[in-house]
Design a protein that fits this description.
By secondary structure, this protein is of the alpha/beta class. It is 33% helix and 13% strand. Pfam families: GDPD.
Length: 347
Amino acid sequence: MGCRKSTQNGSYPERRSSKETSRVGRKLKYAAAAIVAVTAGIYLNNSSLLAPHSGGKPVLLAHRGIAQRFDERNLRNDTCTAARMLPPSHDYLENTIRSMRASFDRGADIVEFDVHPTTDGEFAVFHDWTVDCRTDGQGVTREQAMARLKMLDIGYGYTADGGKTFPFRGKGIGLMPSLDEVLKTFPDRRFLINIKSRDPAEGEKLSAVLNQLPAERRKLIMVYGGDQPIEAVRRLSPETRTISRAAIKSCLVRYLGYGWTGIVPGACRNAIVLVPINYAPWLWGWPDRFLDRMAAANSAVFVLGPYQGGEFSTGVDDADTFRRLPENYSGGIWTNEIEAIARLTGR
């Protein structure tokens, strides 16, 4: 009779192979089930569809208030942007009380402005490191007294035709405000203050100013700028929301890495979270789940224009960029065109 030949221990190779195949099959099924379960868990933990929608209109941040726009191509840190002004459509000058008031009137929730310490213990609200480009003065801004800066014509250097005409010359005398003047003029308004240096002492000086304000007033102020002064602000005024360039990158990179767990990185806590619009869809839980997580971490989210390498992006400044936001988006929007974007949000 023909029969299968057994091995030395009496087992049959065909039967052992069948059992092993069955075990492997069960392991694969368990692994597949585990993968499906983990994937489903990640989806449920990060799906914006399952997150509550806060509703309401977006929070609009007017960068520099209503300002004169300029050619933004090939900019460097020392580029005189006033000499590259585009043909003006209004007569507002950035970082002025008049510009800030108009920004709030036209729908801004927050106005951003720049500060420099002065030799007489104040902070001047002015963008440039030196006064040479924009004014009729000379020298480093922080090496001058506020009283002297008040005498300058901040509209002196603006030109849209290569220096043939200067439409704001003589119209900006005395319009450079101090930080104290801004805070007293708008006691209940929200601001984002930009520290222009990398000097930690500047962060210490600004913290001293902020810490003298009532607690409710301090809640309306955020600060961003160089890593060193921002670290000083975080240390001395820990309740103030802040961000620096290094913190922005750390926040976004780490969130992309493990934000699926629901854990918010330390750099994203009590912070201003700036999100380029082309990166936003890659953030775990974008938009509502992400916004909820940041709000729980006492952070404010603002979408910027697209980041394309090099310098950080500009703002959401036109209808095409605005339409890239999710429908019914209720987070923050950073814009250089507050009038246009306010209209698009129905204000």
